[in-house]
Design a protein that fits this description.
about 220 residues, about 0% strand, mainly alpha, globular, single chain
């Protein structure tokens, strides 16, 4: 997922295997549980919130364990929560407007009500959400144990989620919009889920497309 990511260990493919296993829940949801485009894309939007929580935890770990400025988290943490929170809010409202069809919550912008209503209607969605949380917890644990917490700074961490989220989720959203126009064929939804899986596997193995890698480098350079 987004940096700090689970590093690919030489001579082993376990990060790719874990990434595939984690992404099985959305694929199963589409193929066997009848998830539509809104359920799938809303689940991927919820992933943004989990990534934000993990990024805040990474920033706090860097401040307390990584030798970074301890008081820096008092500035960078709230700053990240504000601008990333606004980003997720706008993104979520966009998802609701495009795919919600006015059927979720009190209104198209009521994201909390939409989440509760969707989980009530699609209880299997909890399995997909649990897989997302597990993946982020795993990455955070690896960030601590492999020493990456000592090799970055809070500015870089606060910018790290954006390149991956913007590129992947724009692809998913506009792909989902095309599927809505085509009446949501099952094959198309599976393609979206497989696209997400391929993206996560490539990132876990350190083999992201060049333009994504360059965006991450620029974000890290901008943060310093």
């Amino acid at each position: 997922m987004s940096e700090p990511k689970v590093p690919a260990s030489r001579g082993t493919h376990w990060p790719a295997i874990v990434a595939v296993a984690i992404n099985l829940a959305p694929i199963i949801g589409v193929a066997f549980w009848g998830w539509n485009a809104f359920a799938l894309i809303f689940l991927y939007w919820l992933e943004n919130l989990v990534i934000g929580a993990r990024t805040l935890a990474s920033m706090a770990a860097n401040a307390t364990m990584g030798g970074g400025p301890g008081l820096g988290i008092m500035f960078y943490g709230p700053a990240f929560a504000l601008h990333y929170g606004l980003f997720c809010l706008v993104h979520g409202m966009f998802v609701m407007a495009m795919f919600g069809n006015g059927a979720w919550g009190a209104g198209w912008g009521d994201l909390a009500s939409a989440a509760f209503a969707l989980f009530a209607k699609e209880p299997n969605l909890a399995a997909g959400f649990a897989s997302i949380v597990f993946w982020q917890v795993l990455q955070f644990g690896t960030f601590i144990t492999n020493g990456a917490v000592n090799e970055t700074d809070q500015k870089s961490l606060m910018l790290s989620p954006y390149p991956r989220i913007v590129i992947l989720h724009l692809s998913i959203i506009f792909g989902g919009f095309l599927l809505q126009m085509l009446n949501e064929p099952l094959a198309g939804l599976l393609v979206l889920a497989l696209l997400k899986t391929a993206f996560d596997v490539a990132e876990a193995m350190g083999k992201m497309p060049d333009f994504v890698a360059k965006l991450k480098e620029h974000a890290a350079d901008y943060g310093r």
